[in-house]
Amino acid sequence: METAVWVIHLIAALSVIGLVLLQHGKGADMGAAFGSGTSGSLFGVSGASNLLSRTTAIMVAVFFCTSLGLTYFSGHRDHDSSVVHQTKVVPLPSAAKLPTLPAPAKSKDVPE
Hints:
Elements: H1 2-22, H2 26-36, H3 51-75, H4 83-86
Helix pairs in contact: 1-3
């Protein structure tokens, strides 16, 4: 189930990016209003929502819902799947079991 939500989430994210890049910005209409073209108003037609903006709104809603779903899945996992709970504590060897190093050999060049 979680894998399906991940796939839908990825498709929604990529489609939102593509749809936003395909849309015509309002800034271009504002430039047209100041003499470089003809426009009905300063910010374009405000009441019209075309297919791209409706599709973008739907995909944003799908992206939001899948984000909430993935948050739910990550919060309700088994606690055994954590890396922290899978580690084993290895006891340190006691000082009596540690090997002793031999004493360094005395050099004849160094006075005592």
